[in-house]
Design goal:
alpha+beta
Length: 66
């Protein structure tokens, strides 16, 4: 077994142009760490705002009015 930690980089965002993903890819490109970027996140059941075509719930009507 080789010395030092091996790091799995997983972005919490599936959004195109994600800052989180950009930071992780930059860290991987800079080197100095033993890491791999996980590419299968989109296949997991995560929230993806790029796939939202309309609000999940309609806005409340008369919220707080009596």
């Amino acid at each position: 077994m080789s010395a030092g930690p091996h790091i799995l980089l997983i972005s919490g965002s599936l959004r195109s142009g994600s800052t989180n993903t950009a930071v992780l890819r930059t860290a991987l490109e800079l080197g100095g760490i033993k890491a791999v970027f996980y590419e299968g996140t989109a296949e997991l059941p995560h929230f993806n705002p790029d796939h939202d075509l309309q609000p999940v719930h309609p806005p409340p009507r008369n919220c707080g009015r009596r």
